[in-house]
Design a protein that fits this description.
Number of strands: 24
Strand content: 25-35%
Helix content: 25-40%
Oligomer: single chain
Number of helices: 14
Largest sheet: 4 strands, mixed
Distance between the termini: 5 Å
Bound molecules: uridine-diphosphate-N-acetylglucosamine
């Protein structure tokens, strides 16, 4: 299994291109089930994209991935309405085929996504919303069996009790082909949802309120072909901003957008990181020292839970203390024991962790446990004295494109050890 070796202490300097967003593309690809053909541009080359391609291919769609051109072309009709356990268990986002299959074909059978390393992550909100659109949903032998009524799904008002990115996406994709109007109240406002709305509208969907927490959809009979460019990955951008900050460097994040960082930009600035807009993206510098800032994760535009681990690595070398509270997922502090092995001073209890900054981390062999935890260990390694080996990097390959190459190109001493 591949590992990543880092020798810390190098200041990063230069330009890092930001890839298309993983979480956007994983919602855009299933939209091809609604109509098409759909051509996606600026597609990152990630293990999760390959998994979603395999899922759509086994549904009967033709998926062509031109990696050199960063383009994905998806077309054809579904011939199989079942999403099997073997694929869904690898990637929770597989559940996003449920809404489109149900809306277009009237039926779907999707393996129940299991628990996952960062918490139980149920799909009850997805299922309730589809029921509100008229579907009957049963759980049978580990599978979600959903059926639309004769005549198809019907628009409804759906009020989400908590903000869910995935449930908003599934509901949107079901509603665009439902009869009549659907209103989604307390919808997630993440930039990936806006990107999905823009793509669906290019395919012919009618959606109002894009970018707000109240989406109004007027169903249409069918969706057609479209070409859509995937939005830049705000989490990758935030991660590299932390990399620049933790090494005292200066980088230009090509393609990154300030408005998509939400509270992450505000918090980084408070901690002593300079972030300036530039015609090509965002310029990130470390001004003077870093200092501890308290933060709580929240739905967008709040501080992203997907940036919590990286921010904790940064805070572990800041002056003073930082209290980090995770409100979205339980059990999302698995990076803490690994950071402790590198000399960080962190205590956690329940949903909050206190990080007391230390002057210097020290390199160590560490184990990646999930996607964002893995990259937080890379950040710590960039700042640590000596050598850090991050084991089990397959998590990293799910969501970061050529991370070691991008960091090496701006001066990091980092390499992948194969095998
Ligand atoms: C998406 C992102 C993930 C990110 C998360 C929160 C993708 C592919 N993944 O995950 O990277 O960390 O948003 O920003 O886009 N919940 C329920 N019932 C449900 C659905 C969710 O209780 O039916 C809860 C979850 O357990 C969690 C919260 O709602 O506590 C938010 O989860 P959600 O926004 O749905 O996350 P995902 O869409 O799975």
């Amino acid at each position: 299994m591949d590992r990543i070796r880092i020798r810390g202490g190098r200041r990063l300097s230069g330009t890092i291109p930001v890839s298309g967003a993983k979480n956007a593309v994983l919602a855009l690809m299933p939209a091809a089930l609604l109509g098409g053909p759909l051509t996606l541009e600026n597609v990152p080359d990630l293990a999760d994209v390959a998994t979603m391609s395999a899922l759509l291919a086994q549904h009967g769609l033709a998926v062509e991935h031109d990696r050199a051109a960063r383009r994905l072309a998806i077309g054809g009709a579904a011939t199989n309405l079942e999403a099997p356990y073997d694929i869904v268990r690898k990637m929770r986002a597989s559940v996003l085929v449920l809404g489109p299959l149900l809306a277009r074909y009237g039926r779907a059978r999707v393996s129940m996504p299991g628990g996952c390393a960062i918490g139980t992550r149920p799909v009850d909100l997805h299922l309730k919303a589809l029921e509100a659109l008229g579907a009957t949903v049963e759980l049978e032998a580990g599978y979600i069996e959903a059926r639309a009524p004769d005549g198809g799904l019907r628009g409804a008002k759906i009020i989400f009790p908590v903000v869910s990115v995935g449930a908003t996406e599934n509901t949107l994709m079901a509603a665009v082909l439902a009869e009549g109007e659907t209103e989604i109240v307390n919808a997630a406002r993440e930039p990936e949802i806006e990107d999905l709305c823009l793509c669906l509208m290019r395919m012919g969907a009618v959606i109002e309120g894009v970018g707000t927490d109240r989406l109004r959809v007027t169903g249409v009979r069918e969706l057609g072909a479209a070409t859509h460019r995937v939005v830049a990955d705000r989490i990758e951008a935030g991660t590299f901003a932390c990399a620049a900050a933790i090494t005292g460097g200066e980088v230009l994040l090509e393609g990154a957008r300030l408005d998509h960082l939400g509270a992450v930009a505000r918090v980084l600035r408070e901690a002593g990181v300079g972030i300036q807009e530039d015609p090509r993206g965002l310029r990130v510098t470390r001004l003077n020292g870093l200092h501890g800032v308290d933060v709580q994760t929240d739905p967008f535009p709040g501080f992203a839970t997907d940036m919590q681990a990286q921010f904790m690595a940064l805070m572990s070398v800041a002056e003073g203390a930082s209290m980090i509270t995770e409100t979205i997922f339980e059990n999302r502090f698995m990076h803490v024991p690994e950071l402790l092995r590198m000399g960080a001073r962190i205590n956690y209890h329940g949903a909050s962790a206190i990080v007391r900054g230390v002057p210097q981390l020290s390199g160590a062999p560490v184990m990646a446990t999930d996607l964002r935890a893995s990259v937080s260990l890379i950040l710590a390694g960039l700042a640590a004295q000596g050598e850090t080996i991050v084991n089990r990097v397959y998590h990293l390959d799910r969501g970061y494109e050529r991370v070691e190459e991008k960091l090496a190109a701006v001066g990091a001493e980092i390499e992948r050890l194969r095998g």
